[in-house]
Amino acid sequence: MAKIAYKVLMSAEKGASWGAAVDHDLSQPLTDQIAAELVALYERYHLLLFRNQTFSAEQQVAFSKLFGPISHRSPAMKVKETALVSNVAPDGVLGDGELLFHSDNTFFQHPLKAIGLYAMEIPSVGGDTLFANAHLVYDSLPDEVKRKLPGLSSLQTFDYGGDYNKRSTLEAVPPDAPVAQHPLLWTNPSTGRIALFLSEHTTVRINGLGKDEEDALIALLRRHIEDPRFCYRHKWTVGDFVFWDNVCLQHARETFDRKQARTLRRTPVLDAEGDRRFPESLDLTRKAA
Ligand code: OGA
Ligand code: MN
To answer: Ligand 1: does its nearest atom lie under 6 Å from the Cβ of 265?
Structure first.
């Protein structure tokens, strides 16, 4: 049977492969052969873009489940298989405004494995989603910074009702908010490559560093994460479906005119191999006394 056709989206730096535009209609049944080809493309490129899709929520869920179970950890997903990232839907999440670079769910011992977004309503300007390749970000760091990072870990927490662009503090989140500790460097067990793993707005502290040293390191790492050389900018068109690796790639959103509707159907995917892929990460959620 013919292989699925695809185009590599960009290769800005040597060895960079942040994504593939895949020529495939996801409203068609997912045969074992097609599923295996799509999973192999995801593992190689970390991000798959499918344009001009008209597929149901059930079909988006079925595709997403090729990679792991759907996550029901966030309040918006308690009883649902999909959520809407939306500034107009009554039950929409992450409505509008800028989102700094991040990986999702770093405040859990096992972050999300992957995320799918299907564009349903898109503003005429703004609201692009940016994807930074965290392997390339690590590779680009100066040697003296690289020498500092092994052994460092960050403490991560989050308040779903809080400010998405301000550093989190343990004092400002509810006492039962999830808290996790992760090494700053993550090794991809399937490739052996190292990625920088640090989401600024959920970072309470970097363990063992004084405040000034911590602020300086976070600012330096942020400059590398935001470097356009390691970054793919996705300008959405209605019908686009983007599915990406939440750890190999960090993502960010640019702001847009909040009077225009922006709605994307979202499938968050859990990491079924979390213990193997995050062997040194800890759940430090405070337990009720
Ligand atoms: C997300 C997210 C970015 C966007 O769904 O986790 O960060 O572009 N969305 O809306
Ligand atoms: Mn996100």
So the answer is: no
